[in-house]
Amino acid sequence: xxxxxxxxxxxxxxxxxxxxxxxxxxxxxxxxxxxxxxxxxxxxxxxxxxxxxxxxxxxxxxxxxxxxxxxxxxxxxxxxxxxxxxxxxxxxxxxxxxxxxxxxxxxxxxxxxxxxxxxxxxxxxxxxxxxxxxxxxxxxxxxxxxxxxxxxxxxxxxxxxxxxxxxxxxxxxxxxxxxxxxxxxxxxxxxxxxxxxxxxxxxxxxxxxxxxxxxxxxxxxxxxxxxxxxxxxxxxxxxxxxxxxxxxxxxxxxxxxxxxxxxxxxxxxxxxxxxxxxxxxxxxxxxxxxxxxxxxxxxxxxxxxxxxxxxxxxxxxxxxxxxxxxxxxxxxxxxxxxxxxxxxxxxxxxxxxxxxxxxxxxxxxxxxxxxxxxxxxxxxxxxxxxxxxxxxxxxxxxxxx
Length: 401
Ligand SMILES: *Cc1c(COP(=O)(O)O)cnc(C)c1O
Known about the structure:
The chain has 401 residues and is an alpha/beta fold.
């Protein structure tokens, strides 16, 4: 790993032909410490947001002991990197062999589910040699909740409807040492009310099922900062979740969990790309939809950008990007604000790509190589530096009725 003060120094030293992913371990560590110190419970890192082993080590050293994994490959990867980590297999649809390997080989005890079929699968796959059921399972029933306050929905694929939840909660209670209820409000939830509303649904589910609950897991969805998407401070989310969870009818010793992906790693990476050609406001760059810019292409996500080449105008114009592959889908509309006189050969730093960015790179069409480099400067935006303007307005301060 090479160390540089910032992305401009990387460009001056290397004039890289390929895109470069910049790592900022100090930013990820700061995010982790924030969750460890301020979330009123246990924070699980949702590995899919960025499955980099170097990042796992940074988070572990900063106090993140629990990891939300979604595939057997993620189980193996985290276990190989962090032998002592607590792994929670939170994908509600798993293969029997993945469950068995996770339980028997890697010590996984926590699993999520949203159907009776999955419950039966977990019980069979973890049965003891004599056929009796495992006695140490921690099972979280995933409830379907609304994604209306989030930028990316996770509402239609997973989660059991409130109306059907009681029989599943009762059946799961029969075989679980710990019973949990989990949900996901969708990624980049722009208001704490998303969690308050979901916890109201959890309350209804528990009351109807009349079961003792040991874990409330509020999932991921904690936002980061992007152009045009400045959420309220994370303290507001934690406060609203704390108040709503405190009043739930759960066992006295119950635990509160969350599963941040984006919020823990968004600030960890940025990307340095080169402009290969310009056509008016369209810049042809050497990374794109099949690289770290998947969300920029497929869901129109805007990322902060800056020009790293010297001597360009201070005056900015809205630009769009074409990626390197040979299809029209490799297009990122933006707008990305860059100097009016951008030229071929210029370098651009694209910020806040640690979550669902650096992790998404593929080798499609022969592109996808990227060197990893570390810098000591700050990310383009931060939830954790205490220097943000306060975006609170009356409509996003949550009042509990
Ligand atoms: C993707 C995912 C997360 C992380 O979501 P973020 O929006 O990145 O915080 C957490 N839990 C589960 C089950 C997920 O699928």
